[in-house]
Amino acid sequence: MRSLPNLKNKKLFFLIALMIIAVMSGWVLFSKPLYSLTIKTSGSDYNLRVELADTDKEREIGLMNRTSLSPDKGMLFIFPKEQSVSFWMKNTLIPLDMLFIKADGRIDFIHHNAHPEDETPITAPGPELAVLEIAGGQAMKHGIKVGDIVKTPLLSGQNQ
Question: How far is CA 109 from CA 102, 115, 144, in A?
Answer without folding.
Answer: 9, 17, 11
